[in-house]
Write a structure and sequence with these properties.
heterodimer; A: alpha/beta; 5 strands; B: Beta-Lactamase; six-stranded antiparallel sheet
């Protein structure tokens, strides 16, 4: 069973994402700020991280860079989530090496399809 | 000159007077000479000729008397005596004439001796007649009478000869005086002709000199040289008056001209003051894009200090973007004027460009009046609005995501079963959540396009491909609703200068709208063609049409035609379509009749 870490400061988002992924059979952990996200990531070593860009303490890009610096977490695939649809943000996410990018509002099907394809890719590579 | 200050009329009169006087003088002189000649002839005729005639008659009478004596000697005494007496009377008659007509001193003596001799002759005849004896008579005749007879005859001949000589000398005198008269008349005539010529020249010169001066002056004045003045040297009062009046006329013309110039100057100053005080930059260009007028605001905006008259726009204002925009606007590109242009001078300002062409009566372009409207403040407010819309939309996204996903989780029964009533209600809620999502999407798109943050990636775009691809997306939906989707013949080589994604979006929006309002059996036609350098694309339907009152408004934000119940979509689609088309320097509009259908048309520039 794949472990997924969801990082978002909106507790309602955390809730629906968690329910959606749980209902499909993933094991879900949550974090609501950047620091907590890094702690959780090294603690549980998830198979995938859904990372919001706008976060308290450390923002999504900073969290991503920190993850990549830590050998334990550097291989974890990351999907960015943001209400920001600016091309600039998407380009930055791509440059950083994010696996994908989900723009709010996210549909359930879109979420599940993206998560599934990223995990599958990880498995094939791993 | 004696004519100085005399009137021209007087001068001409004097001229003629002199000529007439000369004519009279010549006539008088000729008459005088004729008279002299005539007198000479009269002298000859009356004096000498009479004397000669008298002499001849006297000789004749004398010879007849002699014949009478001879008759008496021949025996015809009575007849001879009568003849003698008759001719004696005749002789005296002629003698009296000759005596009356003594014109020469010599005649007197001759006449006197003739008289004496004739008395002697008649006395001798009396003696002869009284003698009865023929031989005595013969003796007396031969010895006494005959010598006297010859003597008288000789005297008379002398008288005749004197008169004849006198006649010859008179004729010579007459000839001489005729010659003299001819010469003197010739001389006087020649002098007169010469004088007449001189006088004519003088008078015509008197008239022509000032007239020539006037002619030159009029030429000068007609060339607007109002400073010209004729010297008042005219020698006759009429010319002087004319010159004075002429100079006065020039003075008045000059005044009038100056007045007109002042008036024009006033008007010009007024216009310039108005133009300079217009609060927007204003530039007037001629048909070769030379700047002929700049107001104060323009000078400030473009940092121009020089007068700059007649320089080309780009020479004075080095702003090619602005120049191109002015050209586009002046060429009737409606969209160009509405897009503001940024002009930096210290700080950046935004201007809306409007142009007004001033044409000649023949319709040729004469001037272009360019007014720049400073819309920096408006632009700021607009940017603020866009930013606000953008921020608000972002803030909507997060709650919308949880609402949407939460509803989907429940509806998909991922978190437990729900009954039919619950399902229906949740479905309605999800539909509206989706609509809210669309609205937020469109709002964001619009604010991006409006604020210019979306760049148009203009490229050579094949119109046929674009239309077919876009229409393909709607084929399934059209089939499901039994709506006929037609694409008219579009030439393969039709290329637009456009951002294919954005134009595809516009076309999609138009097709989506058409499908949204269409009913089973309706048709939708897509057409594209080229007119001039524009490519027109249109989407036609035979749906219910758009009420006239909405036709102008549907391109505004949040406007939808039709009933409240049927509201679908955000109401921003056409507003975005309009923004996109205008960002392509194109234009979009609708032709529609309620109940008949609508045709949406937009145009783009052809790719060159």
């Amino acid at each position: 069973m794949n472990k997924i870490l969801i990082v978002d400061d909106e507790k309602n988002i955390l809730l629906v994402l968690k329910k959606a992924l749980q209902s499909t059979g993933y094991q879900v952990s949550t974090a609501s700020d950047g620091v907590e996200a890094l702690d959780k990531a090294s603690e549980i070593s998830p198979d995938l991280i859904l990372l919001d860009i706008v976060l308290p303490k450390l923002n999504g890009f900073m969290v991503y860079e920190a993850l990549k610096e830590e050998p334990k977490t550097e291989d974890i695939p990351v999907i960015f989530i943001s209400a920001k649809s600016e091309e600039e943000d998407i380009r930055k996410a791509e440059e950083l090496g994010a696996k994908d990018y989900l723009v709010k509002p996210i549909k359930q099907k879109e979420l599940l399809d993206t998560v599934q394809s990223v995990l599958k890719e990880g498995e094939n590579n791993g | 000159m004696i004519f100085e200050d005399k009137s021209l009329k007087l001068k001409i009169f004097f001229g003629y007077f002199i000529l007439i006087a000369l004519l009279v003088a010549i006539t008088g002189w000729s008459l005088y000479n004729f008279n002299n000649l005539s007198n000479s002839i009269t002298d000859i005729m009356e004096n000498n000729y009479k004397s000669i005639k008298s002499s001849d008659n006297m000789v004749e009478s004398l010879e007849r008397q002699d014949s009478g004596i001879l008759m008496i000697l021949n025996g015809q005494i009575e007849k001879g005596h009568n003849t003698f007496r008759n001719n004696e009377r005749e002789f005296y008659k002629w003698f009296a004439r000759a005596e009356d007509n003594i014109t020469i001193e010599a005649e007197k003596g001759i006449i006197k001796s003739i008289n004496e001799q004739y008395l002697k002759f008649t006395k001798l005849f009396d003696k002869f007649y009284q003698k009865n004896d023929l031989s005595q008579r013969n003796q007396l005749y031969n010895k006494k009478i005959l010598p006297v007879f010859y003597e008288i005859k000789e005297k008379i001949r002398e008288l005749r000869s004197v008169n004849q000589n006198k006649m010859v000398s008179a004729q010579e005198k007459a000839n001489a005086s005729a010659d003299q008269a001819t010469i003197s008349t010739l001389i006087i005539s020649m002098v007169s002709i010469l004088m007449a010529i001189l006088i004519s020249l003088y008078i015509s010169n008197q008239i022509m000199t000032p007239i020539n001066k006037l002619k030159a002056a009029i030429k000068e004045v007609s060339n607007k040289n109002f400073k010209y003045k004729i010297e008042e040297t005219g020698s006759s009062s009429e010319i002087k008056q004319l010159t004075t009046q002429f100079n006065r006329m020039i003075e008045k013309l000059q005044k009038y001209n100056r007045m007109n110039i002042n008036k024009l100057k006033d008007e010009k100053n007024k216009s310039e003051a108005i133009v300079n005080n217009i609060n927007n930059p204003l530039i007037v260009l001629d048909n070769e894009n030379r700047i002929i007028l700049l107001n104060q605001r323009s000078r400030e905006l473009f940092d121009i200090e020089e007068e700059g008259g007649n320089k080309h726009f780009l020479e004075l204002i080095n702003n090619e973007n602005l120049f191109n925009k002015i050209k586009e606007t002046a060429n009737g590109d409606e969209s160009s004027g509405t897009n503001p242009i940024e002009i930096k001078n210290g700080k950046s300002r935004y201007y809306k460009v409007s142009t007004n062409s001033i044409t000649t009566e023949q319709g040729d372009l004469k001037y272009t009046v360019v007014v720049l409207e400073n819309i920096t403040e408006l632009k700021k407010v607009d940017d603020l609005k866009s930013e606000f819309v953008s921020t608000v939309s972002h803030e909507f996204r997060t709650p919308l995501t949880s609402m949407n996903m939460g509803l989907e989780l429940i509806l998909n029964e991922n978190v437990g079963e729900i009954n039919q009533d619950q399902k229906e209600l949740l479905e309605a809620t999800l539909e509206d959540t989706n609509r809210l999502n669309e609205l937020v999407d469109d709002l964001l798109d619009l604010s991006k396009i409006e604020s210019g943050r979306v760049e148009m990636n203009m490229d050579k775009t094949n119109v046929k491909n674009l239309v077919e691809k876009t229409a393909g997306l709607f084929e399934q939906q059209a089939q499901e609703n039994e709506i006929e989707l037609q694409i008219n013949d579009i030439p393969d080589d039709l290329y637009a200068n456009a951002d294919p994604n954005k134009i595809s979006w516009v076309l999609s929006n138009l097709l989506g709208n058409a499908l949204r309002y269409a009913q089973n059996g309706d048709y939708i036609k897509i057409a594209a063609n080229k007119k001039g350098n524009r490519i027109y694309m249109s989407v036609e339907d035979n749906g219910k049409g758009i009420p006239e009152e909405y036709q102008d408004k549907i391109f505004e934000k949040f406007v939808r035609a039709g009933d409240e119940e049927e509201k679908k979509g955000s109401g921003l689609g056409l507003a975005i379509a309009k923004e996109i088309v205008e960002a392509h320097n194109g234009s979009i509009w609708v032709d529609s009749e309620e109940g008949e259908g609508s045709t949406f048309t937009f145009y783009l520039k052809e790719y060159k």
